[in-house]
Amino acid sequence: MENKMGVGIIGCGNILNQYVKGCRAFEVLEIVSCADINHEKAAVAAEKYAIPQVYSVEDLLSDPHVDIILNLTVPNVHAEVNQATIAAGKHVYSEKPLATERQAGYLTLSAAEEKRVRVGCAPDTFLGGGLQTCRKLLDDGWIGQPVGATAFMMSRGPESWHPNPNFFYQPGGGPLFDMAPYYLTTLIQLLGPISRVAGADRISFPERIATSNKRFGDRINVEVATHSTALLNFSAGPIGVLITSFDIVASELPRIEIYGSEGTLSVPDPNFFGGIIRIRRAGAEEWQEIPLTHSSSVGRGIGLADMAQAIRTGREHRANGEVAYHVLDVMEAIGESSSQECHINIQSSCSRSAPLPLGLLPGRLDG
Ligand SMILES: NC(=O)c1ccc[n+]([C@@H]2O[C@H](COP(=O)([O-])OP(=O)(O)OC[C@H]3O[C@@H](n4cnc5c(N)ncnc54)[C@H](O)[C@@H]3O)[C@@H](O)[C@H]2O)c1
């Protein structure tokens, strides 16, 4: 395909594997080079995934074959890498969160506007068949007018499996900044932007002990809240509850439910691209499983492919900086509400991204 866009990857850690596979499913993307602050990791990744060039971060940013940087670094350097990319005149697609503070997120978006480059940001799971089907059901009125929503991410934390768990307990981590992007992005894509929040959070365990193979017994100092509860007022009227936690041993709560005037929609885990969708309409005696309207055989990287395709055709891309900044604004406000013991009005807003067309061929994003 002549219209391929060159992708340079910065950050060759745990999630790289999923992105390489996900990106290679789309004709518009070609992974041309990679870099990591730990050069050895980049070299090993290049060998393992047959990535043609390994560079230092600086040299990658000046590689003329790279159109878009895929930023897979840890959260507290996302903004720095995103801004260096923009300064180099390249488009950037970042892992979430967009930044660890509003100000850095704002500077990223304004720099991109000035340089006329695009900013994309994970999560892109809302482009999978599971959440696109939920979007269609809502838009087609299957549960009537949305009234409220609940979203629960209850876990005991990632130190039992992640090879480098420290960043989850540093600023930019915690269950809110690590996992709420999936939940908030989904809620915002389904119900629209959020206008006000109230939050309460705590650090339940000031020290954690890693139990993954490589890090067994390592002590991790906890610097951020690990149990967070929020009330969300959506601009269009519905009211949501969000709990994200790394402090819960077990839970039977659902992931996400949307309550409407005519029924309830059970939304699958927003960390994945597929899942089971169920609906129970007023008068029905049972829940009904709904077949997916879009493919769930996609993975991390679909948002980047959509951005590349959008750059080629001049349309808007879906996993965009505006939504990611709104999510960041809401997350920061939840923490502020907890420490200031008051509601916080959200200054930013965003539009819901266009739904994906029906009947797309594999590897394509425009009908
Ligand atoms: N691991 C997962 O399951 C998962 C899932 C979804 C999203 N994510 C997100 O992906 C991102 C990366 O996560 P991960 O699990 O791969 O982390 P990781 O720690 O395994 O990898 C991060 C890599 O970034 C490199 N790095 C750090 N600072 C850098 C810098 N300034 N310049 C260049 N390279 C730098 C590190 O050396 C490391 O190789 C995070 O934002 C995380 O939230 C991870």
Could you characterize the architecture of this molecule?
It is a single chain. This protein is α/β, with parallel strands linked by helices and 367 residues long. Helices cover 30% and strands 23% of the residues. It is built from nine helices and 17 strands. Strand 2 (29-35), helix 2 and strand 3 (53-54) form a beta-alpha-beta unit. Helix 5 (102-115) runs antiparallel to helix 9 (321-340). The radius of gyration is 20 Å and the shape is globular. The model has no long low-confidence stretch (mean pLDDT 97). The protein binds nicotinamide-adenine-dinucleotide. Residues 10-15, 36-38, 41, 57, 72-75, 77, 81, 95, 164, 178 line the site of nicotinamide-adenine-dinucleotide.
Offer a few descriptive terms.
single chain, 367 residues, alpha/beta, Rossmann fold, Dihydrodipicolinate Reductase, domain 2, 2 domains, nine-stranded mixed sheet, six-stranded parallel sheet, 9 helices, 30% helix, 23% strand, binds nicotinamide-adenine-dinucleotide
